[in-house]
């Protein structure tokens, strides 16, 4: 049985995905921070992996601005998800 800590997406990974999406949406860190009602320093720390902890509500506000969400699913025991397969296929 895999260790649950090995399968959890950490805050650093979430921060990288937020930075990627923010750039795709042509938003500055300041614009994102203002829309999500958090400080620019929080966005910077999150995107650079410096932020080690962040409240759930703040994360959800940031994700909402970027039109992203979190999915809770059953552990897939290392099998690829549909999204993984689509990315591999270039879709």
Automatic annotation (TrEMBL):
Record's InterPro entries? Cro/C1-type_HTH, Lambda_DNA-bd_dom_sf
What Pfam families does this protein map onto? HTH_3
Q: Give the matching PROSITE patterns.
A: HTH_CROC1
Tell me the ranges covered by the HTH cro/C1-type domain, including all copies: 18-73
One GO MF term on file is: DNA binding
- Gene3D superfamilies with a match to the protein in the record: lambda repressor-like DNA-binding domains
Q: What is this protein called?
A: HTH cro/C1-type domain-containing protein
Q: What is the species listed in this Swiss-Prot or TrEMBL entry?
A: Asticcacaulis benevestitus DSM 16100 = ATCC BAA-896
